[in-house]
């Protein structure tokens, strides 16, 4: 009997053929074979309400995005059971609550459309750098386009398999990886504050975004006065530009104190500590007691994590996962207001 890791690897190795079969089922093909599985995993042990329409017409009824994700997940499970695990007669479950979507494979399933985004439960800010504890299958659908022209003929247009650590923010992980080991060797307290800032940063905040950019000034701890002066000058120009725009829109202005934080870096020594302290002060002022340092378990993970995130992750009431970078669609994840 294969263990969970072996079963999940079998899915990963056969992903192309499995997705092809799911797309065929979304056209109404081969559903007779899938019907027993769909009935078993359906709510109340009955076939889902969309099954008959899909079987007869190869279309889905008018469904919302969340329900579309459930349709894709159910068809995927049925395809895996009947095509990949038929001989072993392995039965898979779908987790109806929070947790891993396919617990028998320890595998999550995400089904974004062409906007590339999904909302996910928030547990710890450090998930933004660490990712999650299970692998995830990302299935890109054409729902946004197809729903404009009913009846709905859904298809999966792209897909990718992510290891758990890859379900983290691509750009923040790259910055963390650049400075983590050096900071840990030099001063562990600095390293913790630096990673804390990356976990909590909100790039729609003017000062927060400028402080994030300030870390680009550090190159193997060598300070460059010309780069620093150019950075401060660019910040001053942007500060004026943003406040002119906010005035026209009767929005609250960026406070002068935010610009002074950036200007104060010109007199700071060492620059690296000044940037880290300013970043930590921003977290404290923005999040108060919620903005905490990593706990013991998180810190141990942060020290050894590959920091190989591949998506965009931004905070809201929940995490907002942006799979655009994964499918080569780059966007400004958090724009300034």
Distance between the termini: 55 Å
Read across the widest sheet, the strand sequence of neighbours is 1-3-4
Which regions contain 5 or more consecutive residues with pLDDT less than 50?
none
Radius of gyration: 24 Å
- Broad shape: elongated
Strand content: 5-15%
Query: Order of helices and strands, N to C?
Result: HHHHHEEHEHEHHHHHHHEE
Q: What is the mean pLDDT?
A: 94
Helix proportion: 40-55%
In total, how many domains does the architecture comprise?
2
Number of helices: 14
Instruction: Please provide the count of β strands.
Output: 6
Major β-sheet annotation:
3 strands, mixed
Structural overview:
By secondary structure, the chain is mostly helical. Helices cover 49% and strands 9% of the residues. The chain folds into 2 domains: 4-124 and 133-166, no CATH class; 170-307, no CATH class. A 3-stranded mixed sheet has the order 1-3-4, covered by helices on one side. A hairpin with a 3-residue loop joins strand 5 and strand 6. Helix 3 (31-41) packs across helix 5. The termini are far apart. The model has no long low-confidence stretch (mean pLDDT 94).
């Amino acid at each position: 009997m294969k263990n969970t890791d072996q079963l999940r690897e079998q899915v990963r190795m056969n992903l192309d053929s499995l997705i092809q079969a799911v797309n065929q089922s979304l056209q109404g093909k081969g559903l007779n074979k899938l019907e027993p599985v769909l009935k078993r995993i359906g709510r109340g042990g009955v076939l889902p309400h969309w099954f008959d329409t899909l079987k007869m017409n190869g279309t889905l009824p008018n469904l919302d995005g969340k329900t579309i994700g459930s349709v894709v997940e159910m068809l995927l499970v049925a395809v895996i059971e009947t095509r990949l695990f038929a001989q072993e007669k392995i039965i898979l479950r779908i987790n109806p609550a929070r947790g891993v979507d396919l617990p028998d494979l320890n595998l999550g399933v995400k089904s974004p459309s062409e906007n590339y985004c999904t909302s996910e439960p928030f547990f710890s800010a450090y998930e933004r750098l660490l990712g999650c504890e299970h692998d995830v299958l990302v299935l890109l659908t054409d729902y946004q386009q197809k729903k404009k022209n009913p009846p709905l003929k859904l298809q999966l247009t792209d897909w990718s398999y992510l290891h758990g650590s890859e379900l983290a923010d691509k750009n923040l992980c790259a910055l963390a990886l650049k400075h983590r080991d050096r900071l840990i060797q030099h001063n562990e307290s600095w390293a913790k504050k630096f990673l804390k800032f990356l976990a909590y940063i909100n790039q729609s905040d003017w000062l927060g975004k400028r402080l994030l950019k300030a870390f680009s000034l550090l190159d193997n701890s060598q300070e460059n006065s010309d780069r620093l002066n150019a950075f401060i000058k660019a910040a001053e120009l942007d500060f004026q530009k943003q406040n002119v725009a906010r005035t026209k829109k009767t929005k609250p202005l960026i406070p002068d104190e935010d610009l002074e934080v950036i200007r104060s870096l010109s007199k700071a020594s060492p620059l690296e500590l000044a940037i880290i302290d300013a970043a930590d002060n921003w977290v404290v002022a923005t999040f108060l007691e919620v903005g905490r340092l990593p706990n013991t378990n998180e810190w141990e993970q942060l020290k050894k994590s590959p920091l190989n995130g591949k998506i965009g992750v931004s905070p809201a009431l929940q995490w907002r996962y942006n799979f655009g970078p994964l499918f080569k669609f780059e966007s400004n994840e958090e724009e300034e207001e």
